[in-house]
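step: validate -> pass
step: tokenize input -> pass
step: predict -> running
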Amino acid sequence: MSMTVSSRRRHILEQVVSRGHVSVRDLALGMSVSEATVRRDLRQLADSKQIDLVYGGATVRRCHDQSLQFRAQQNIEAKRAIGRLASELVQDGDMIFIDCGTTCFEMRHYLKAKRSLTVILNSTRLATELGENGDFSIILLGGNYRHDRMDAIGPLAVNAIDQLRGYIAFIGVDGLDMEFGLSASDIQTAHLYQHVMKNARESILLADRSKFLAPSLYRIGDIESVSRIVTDGPPSAEWAEHLTARGIDLIYPDNKEEPHA
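step: predict -> pass
step: emit ->
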């Protein structure tokens, strides 16, 4: 069975998550590839913080911290640049959804200068920040509250977003893959964002360049489900070609290219 690099790495990640530990030998036999190929894949997944390497194989990450405090410290300068660029896409009077992630959270500084926005949120801390502007209409989705992320997810949140239409969605992800698309590290977030994007009139992805390295476990949707990607710099030539072929605009600092028609 011949597998692409991305599908091979996704298979490895699924095996690690489901089994807890995988060996280089077993993976090589199962995918009919060399052990050297598997080691390269494992090293890349470890570099992108998907797994932990151990002697002879890999395990589930032992310190996989999804708290706001941990994630807010990762790639902070990139997130600030992305937040500024994303906020420039918002016009006075727009209706927007902003996800609960730390990259989208960096939009808050610049959105406060806007007027008459309707902002849909599942983040309580972002609602507190933007709610200080009395000119904004804040719609806060209800649901199961996660204290470590200060957000709401689950069936009630999904039901609430299914009652709404006509907004622009600003979404962050935990991973990207040309075949697998947009992905999240937990299934509840992935499920909610599937509905957010389905009901939006336009979806804009916010992702620093590290997200282009590998997918996370739970699929959100196709790459084609977003119209623009805001990032902190040019991705690889392969990714740039892939996105251009699908009419997806790339927005990053100092990129002067005109958007696609």
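step: describe -> The CA atoms of residues 230 and 251 lie 5 Å apart.
step: cleanup -> pass
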